[in-house]
Amino acid sequence: MSLIQTWQEGGLAWMELSRPDKLNALNRDLLAELGQVARELSDDPEVRVLLLTGSGERAFAAGADIAEMCEQDRDGIRELMELGKEAAYTLEEAPQPVIAVVNGYALGGGCELSLACDLVCAAESAQFGLPEIDLGVLPGWGGTQRLERRVGYGRARDMILTGRRVPAAEALAWGLCDRVFPAARLRDEATALAQTLAVKDAQSLAACKRALRARSLLSAAEGLAVETELFVQLFDRPERAVQMGRFVRR
Protein backbone atom coordinates (compact mmCIF):
# COMPACT_ATOMS: atom_id res chain seq x y z
CA MET A 1 0.00 0.00 0.00
CA SER A 2 1.27 3.45 -0.87
CA LEU A 3 2.53 5.54 2.03
CA ILE A 4 1.99 8.77 0.06
CA GLN A 5 -1.54 9.41 -1.14
CA THR A 6 -1.75 11.88 -4.01
CA TRP A 7 -4.52 13.70 -5.85
CA GLN A 8 -4.72 16.68 -8.15
CA GLU A 9 -7.25 19.50 -8.31
CA GLY A 10 -6.65 21.60 -11.37
CA GLY A 11 -3.05 22.74 -11.10
CA LEU A 12 -2.77 21.79 -7.43
CA ALA A 13 -1.10 18.51 -6.43
CA TRP A 14 -1.59 17.14 -2.92
CA MET A 15 0.77 14.71 -1.19
CA GLU A 16 -0.50 13.13 2.02
CA LEU A 17 1.78 11.25 4.42
CA SER A 18 -0.22 8.11 5.13
CA ARG A 19 0.72 6.18 8.26
CA PRO A 20 -2.14 7.39 10.49
CA ASP A 21 -1.77 4.49 12.95
CA LYS A 22 1.83 5.70 13.59
CA LEU A 23 1.03 9.44 13.56
CA ASN A 24 2.62 9.47 10.10
CA ALA A 25 6.04 8.62 11.54
CA LEU A 26 8.67 8.86 8.83
CA ASN A 27 10.24 5.50 8.05
CA ARG A 28 12.58 4.50 5.27
CA ASP A 29 9.86 3.45 2.83
CA LEU A 30 7.79 6.58 3.35
CA LEU A 31 10.78 8.88 2.86
CA ALA A 32 11.86 7.09 -0.31
CA GLU A 33 8.34 7.28 -1.71
CA LEU A 34 7.96 10.94 -0.74
CA GLY A 35 11.17 11.85 -2.56
CA GLN A 36 10.08 9.97 -5.68
CA VAL A 37 6.54 11.39 -5.71
CA ALA A 38 7.76 14.95 -5.08
CA ARG A 39 10.26 14.66 -7.94
CA GLU A 40 7.63 13.35 -10.35
CA LEU A 41 5.10 16.04 -9.47
CA SER A 42 7.65 18.84 -9.56
CA ASP A 43 8.64 17.73 -13.07
CA ASP A 44 5.00 17.84 -14.26
CA PRO A 45 4.38 21.11 -16.16
CA GLU A 46 0.67 20.86 -15.35
CA VAL A 47 1.35 21.11 -11.62
CA ARG A 48 1.43 24.72 -10.46
CA VAL A 49 1.53 24.27 -6.66
CA LEU A 50 2.44 21.34 -4.39
CA LEU A 51 0.78 20.80 -1.01
CA LEU A 52 2.08 18.42 1.66
CA THR A 53 -0.07 17.26 4.58
CA GLY A 54 -0.58 14.33 6.94
CA SER A 55 -3.42 11.83 7.17
CA GLY A 56 -5.75 11.84 10.16
CA GLU A 57 -6.47 14.67 12.55
CA ARG A 58 -3.61 14.36 15.03
CA ALA A 59 -0.38 14.64 13.12
CA PHE A 60 1.32 16.11 10.09
CA ALA A 61 4.25 13.87 11.00
CA ALA A 62 5.26 13.08 14.56
CA GLY A 63 8.89 12.57 13.60
CA ALA A 64 11.08 9.71 12.46
CA ASP A 65 10.10 6.12 13.14
CA ILE A 66 12.26 5.65 16.24
CA ALA A 67 11.68 1.88 16.38
CA GLU A 68 13.12 1.52 12.88
CA MET A 69 15.91 3.94 13.68
CA CYS A 70 17.01 1.90 16.70
CA GLU A 71 17.59 -1.11 14.44
CA GLN A 72 20.16 0.69 12.28
CA ASP A 73 23.91 0.32 12.39
CA ARG A 74 26.23 3.19 11.49
CA ASP A 75 25.85 2.67 7.73
CA GLY A 76 22.12 2.16 7.99
CA ILE A 77 21.56 5.35 9.97
CA ARG A 78 23.66 7.33 7.50
CA GLU A 79 21.49 6.01 4.65
CA LEU A 80 18.33 6.95 6.58
CA MET A 81 19.64 10.45 7.18
CA GLU A 82 20.38 10.82 3.47
CA LEU A 83 16.85 9.68 2.56
CA GLY A 84 15.32 12.30 4.85
CA LYS A 85 17.59 15.05 3.58
CA GLU A 86 16.90 14.10 -0.03
CA ALA A 87 13.12 14.23 0.52
CA ALA A 88 13.39 17.67 2.13
CA TYR A 89 15.78 18.91 -0.56
CA THR A 90 13.38 17.79 -3.31
CA LEU A 91 10.59 19.83 -1.73
CA GLU A 92 12.87 22.82 -1.31
CA GLU A 93 14.19 22.71 -4.88
CA ALA A 94 10.85 22.16 -6.63
CA PRO A 95 10.25 24.97 -9.13
CA GLN A 96 6.66 25.29 -7.92
CA PRO A 97 5.66 26.81 -4.58
CA VAL A 98 5.30 24.09 -1.93
CA ILE A 99 2.83 24.55 0.94
CA ALA A 100 3.01 22.49 4.14
CA VAL A 101 -0.50 21.98 5.53
CA VAL A 102 0.26 21.12 9.15
CA ASN A 103 -2.80 19.46 10.65
CA GLY A 104 -1.31 18.44 14.01
CA TYR A 105 2.06 17.44 15.41
CA ALA A 106 5.04 18.49 13.28
CA LEU A 107 7.86 17.10 15.38
CA GLY A 108 11.41 16.10 14.54
CA GLY A 109 11.51 15.08 10.90
CA GLY A 110 7.96 16.37 10.45
CA CYS A 111 9.06 19.84 11.50
CA GLU A 112 12.08 19.53 9.22
CA LEU A 113 9.88 18.70 6.23
CA SER A 114 7.76 21.78 6.93
CA LEU A 115 10.93 23.90 7.03
CA ALA A 116 11.75 22.76 3.49
CA CYS A 117 8.42 24.10 2.21
CA ASP A 118 7.91 27.64 0.97
CA LEU A 119 4.80 28.41 3.02
CA VAL A 120 3.35 26.73 6.10
CA CYS A 121 -0.35 26.73 6.96
CA ALA A 122 -1.14 25.26 10.37
CA ALA A 123 -4.19 24.24 12.35
CA GLU A 124 -4.73 26.06 15.64
CA SER A 125 -4.01 22.74 17.36
CA ALA A 126 -0.68 22.20 15.57
CA GLN A 127 2.59 21.94 17.46
CA PHE A 128 6.11 22.26 16.10
CA GLY A 129 9.24 20.91 17.72
CA LEU A 130 12.68 19.37 17.34
CA PRO A 131 12.90 16.96 20.31
CA GLU A 132 16.02 15.11 19.14
CA ILE A 133 18.02 16.44 22.10
CA ASP A 134 15.90 14.23 24.37
CA LEU A 135 16.77 11.20 22.26
CA GLY A 136 20.52 11.73 22.49
CA VAL A 137 20.93 13.00 18.91
CA LEU A 138 20.30 16.21 16.95
CA PRO A 139 18.04 17.21 14.06
CA GLY A 140 19.51 15.35 11.09
CA TRP A 141 17.29 16.22 8.11
CA GLY A 142 18.20 19.88 7.80
CA GLY A 143 16.71 21.30 10.98
CA THR A 144 19.94 22.81 12.28
CA GLN A 145 20.42 24.59 8.95
CA ARG A 146 16.91 25.63 7.88
CA LEU A 147 15.35 26.62 11.19
CA GLU A 148 17.55 29.68 11.67
CA ARG A 149 16.49 31.03 8.27
CA ARG A 150 12.89 31.04 9.46
CA VAL A 151 13.07 32.11 13.08
CA GLY A 152 16.56 33.54 13.67
CA TYR A 153 19.53 32.12 15.54
CA GLY A 154 18.27 32.77 19.06
CA ARG A 155 14.93 31.06 18.61
CA ALA A 156 16.50 28.23 16.63
CA ARG A 157 18.92 27.66 19.48
CA ASP A 158 16.02 27.71 21.98
CA MET A 159 14.06 25.06 20.07
CA ILE A 160 16.99 22.78 19.30
CA LEU A 161 18.69 22.87 22.71
CA THR A 162 15.52 22.54 24.80
CA GLY A 163 13.51 20.29 22.49
CA ARG A 164 10.33 22.05 23.54
CA ARG A 165 7.16 22.10 21.49
CA VAL A 166 5.98 25.40 20.03
CA PRO A 167 2.19 25.82 19.70
CA ALA A 168 0.73 27.23 16.51
CA ALA A 169 0.06 30.74 17.83
CA GLU A 170 3.66 31.13 18.99
CA ALA A 171 4.94 29.51 15.78
CA LEU A 172 3.02 32.14 13.80
CA ALA A 173 4.53 34.97 15.85
CA TRP A 174 8.02 33.51 15.31
CA GLY A 175 7.60 32.97 11.56
CA LEU A 176 7.81 29.19 11.93
CA CYS A 177 4.48 29.05 10.15
CA ASP A 178 2.81 31.66 7.94
CA ARG A 179 -0.92 31.24 8.53
CA VAL A 180 -3.03 29.59 11.25
CA PHE A 181 -6.63 28.45 10.84
CA PRO A 182 -9.22 26.41 12.76
CA ALA A 183 -8.64 22.74 11.96
CA ALA A 184 -11.99 22.40 10.19
CA ARG A 185 -11.01 25.13 7.70
CA LEU A 186 -7.34 24.27 7.26
CA ARG A 187 -7.46 22.40 3.95
CA ASP A 188 -9.95 24.80 2.40
CA GLU A 189 -7.84 27.80 3.39
CA ALA A 190 -4.64 26.15 2.17
CA THR A 191 -6.37 25.34 -1.11
CA ALA A 192 -7.45 28.96 -1.48
CA LEU A 193 -3.88 30.13 -0.88
CA ALA A 194 -2.57 27.61 -3.42
CA GLN A 195 -5.10 28.82 -5.99
CA THR A 196 -3.84 32.41 -5.64
CA LEU A 197 -0.35 31.13 -6.44
CA ALA A 198 -1.46 28.82 -9.25
CA VAL A 199 -2.63 31.72 -11.42
CA LYS A 200 0.67 33.58 -11.17
CA ASP A 201 3.41 33.29 -13.79
CA ALA A 202 5.12 29.95 -13.25
CA GLN A 203 8.54 31.10 -14.45
CA SER A 204 8.43 34.14 -12.18
CA LEU A 205 7.54 31.96 -9.20
CA ALA A 206 10.41 29.58 -9.96
CA ALA A 207 12.81 32.50 -10.32
CA CYS A 208 11.67 34.00 -7.02
CA LYS A 209 12.38 30.68 -5.33
CA ARG A 210 15.85 30.53 -6.89
CA ALA A 211 16.66 34.08 -5.81
CA LEU A 212 15.47 33.51 -2.25
CA ARG A 213 17.46 30.28 -2.10
CA ALA A 214 20.58 32.07 -3.35
CA ARG A 215 20.42 34.43 -0.37
CA SER A 216 20.90 31.53 2.02
CA LEU A 217 23.70 29.92 0.01
CA LEU A 218 25.71 32.84 -1.35
CA SER A 219 27.20 36.09 -0.19
CA ALA A 220 25.04 39.21 -0.43
CA ALA A 221 26.89 40.39 -3.53
CA GLU A 222 26.56 37.00 -5.23
CA GLY A 223 22.89 36.80 -4.33
CA LEU A 224 22.25 40.23 -5.82
CA ALA A 225 24.01 39.16 -9.01
CA VAL A 226 21.73 36.10 -9.24
CA GLU A 227 18.70 38.32 -8.66
CA THR A 228 19.71 40.67 -11.48
CA GLU A 229 20.38 37.83 -13.92
CA LEU A 230 17.03 36.22 -13.17
CA PHE A 231 15.26 39.56 -13.60
CA VAL A 232 16.86 40.07 -17.02
CA GLN A 233 15.92 36.54 -18.10
CA LEU A 234 12.31 37.07 -17.05
CA PHE A 235 12.17 40.48 -18.71
CA ASP A 236 13.28 39.04 -22.03
CA ARG A 237 10.05 37.06 -22.54
CA PRO A 238 6.85 37.78 -24.48
CA GLU A 239 4.83 36.83 -21.40
CA ARG A 240 6.42 39.70 -19.48
CA ALA A 241 5.55 42.17 -22.23
CA VAL A 242 1.92 41.03 -22.18
CA GLN A 243 1.63 41.30 -18.40
CA MET A 244 3.34 44.69 -18.15
CA GLY A 245 1.32 45.98 -21.09
CA ARG A 246 -1.88 44.92 -19.37
CA PHE A 247 -0.77 46.74 -16.22
CA VAL A 248 0.06 49.97 -18.07
CA ARG A 249 -3.35 50.00 -19.81
CA ARG A 250 -5.31 49.82 -16.55
Q: What does the model show?
A:
This protein has 250 residues and is α/β, with parallel strands linked by helices. The protein has helices at residues 28-42, 66-70, 74-93, 109-115, 143-151, 153-162, 168-174, 186-198, 202-217, 220-235, 238-248, and strands at residues 4-9, 12-17, 49-54, 59-61, 98-102, 105-107, 119-123, 127-129, 165-167, 179-181. Helix content is 52%, strand content 17%. Helix 4 (109-115) packs across helix 5 (143-151) and helix 9 runs antiparallel to helix 10. The chain contains eleven helices and ten strands. It folds into two domains: 4-198, 2-enoyl-CoA Hydratase, Chain A, domain 1 (Alpha-Beta Complex), CATH 3.90.226.10; 202-248.
N- and C-termini, Cα separation: 53 Å
**H/E element string?**
EEHEEHHEEHEEHHEHEHHHH
Provide the helix percentage: 40-55%
Largest sheet: number of strands, sense, barrel closure: 6 strands, mixed
Instruction: Label the CATH architecture of the largest domain.
Output: Alpha-Beta Complex
CATH class of the largest domain: Alpha Beta
* CATH homologous superfamily descriptor of the largest domain: 2-enoyl-CoA Hydratase, Chain A, domain 1
- Rg over CA atoms, rounded to whole Å, is 19 Å
Task: Give the CATH topology of the largest domain.
Answer: 2-enoyl-CoA Hydratase, Chain A, domain 1
**Which class best fits the helix and strand makeup?**
alpha/beta
Assign an overall shape: globular
**Strands, total number:** 10
Specify the number of helices: 11
Total of domains: 2
Beta-strand residue fraction:
15-25%
The overall pLDDT, averaged over residues, is 95
